[in-house]
Amino acid sequence: MTKSLSSFQNQNIPKINQRIDDLLDQTVFDNELKSMMAYSIHAGGKRLRPLLLLAIIETVQNILTKDDFTVAAALEAIHTYSLIHDDLPAMDNDDLRRGNPTSHKKYGEAHAILTGDALLTVAFQWLSSLDGDSDKTVKLVTELSAAAGPSGMVIGQVWDIEGVTKQYSMDKLQQLHENKTGRLLKFTAQAANVLTNVSKQLADELVGFTTNFGLAYQIFDDIADVTETTAQLGKTAHKDLAQNKNTYPNLEGLQQAKLDLDNVIKHMNENLQRMSEIDSTLDLGLLRGFIQYLQLDGEK
């Protein structure tokens, strides 16, 4: 029976949340700081990144371990820190995140900065607590720091800020998206490849799939900023256009952006086809669910 992403979400989001809470209890001893960290990391996010990580592991080995959930929690902590800092007045200056006041609106700018700092650093503390062998831990720390740092998410954010005053080529915009949004999504495959014993052929296709998903997800998000309301988004709508940001719809128009999204989704389907040729026993239903997530005529 083909696995359903919706069932997988219902089963594993509570486990992700519980692992986050357990880790916060084990590593954060000031209750006020813990509350500020929990406020943002439990603010109603879709858990897309940890779910993609766990879905890949489930697909290739059919079992999830405590270490897998610890890596998933660390990944969500990094993502949440980036959102807190992205919302700050010095960055995007957003009042809403997931329909709730942003961290700096609720706790003040200084506390929001420190909360983001705490989530960034505790993620690596969590990774260092894995039960598995130390070589795998080092590989995971190396991959996540590269994905989140100056060769990944941070440089993407720098380019995003600088793009307010200049117009990028489409190649540059794709590089921006692949770093700012795509690198943490690509990390899901890199981490799964470390945590499991997949062949190099299959590992390469998983990295390709998540790289394409990262780009597709950002194009999808760019389109949503133009077509959806603040209530639908849970954050301020049409802000990219108002700030003259480099996005797919802003640079090439909404219709072409939709065509580009379709093209990247085509590449994702090709990744899945090659995976099935490498191992015909794989149930790829969970990964197909992430493609369905990107359908513009469906529910987010």
From TrEMBL:
One of its GO terms (biological process) is terpenoid biosynthetic process. One of its GO terms (molecular function) is metal ion binding. CDD domains: Trans_IPPS_HT (cd00685). Pfam families: polyprenyl_synt (PF00348). The keyword Transferase applies. Its EC number is 2.5.1.10. Its cofactor is Mg(2+). It is an enzyme of class 2 (transferase). It catalyses: isopentenyl diphosphate + (2E)-geranyl diphosphate = (2E,6E)-farnesyl diphosphate + diphosphate. GO terms for cellular component: cytoplasm. Keywords: Isoprene biosynthesis, Magnesium, Metal-binding, Transferase. InterPro entries: Isoprenoid_synthase_dom_sf, Polyprenyl_synt, Polyprenyl_synt_CS, Prenyl_diphosphate_synthase. Transmembrane segments: none annotated. Belongs to the FPP/GGPP synthase family. This is Farnesyl diphosphate synthase. It comes from Pediococcus argentinicus.
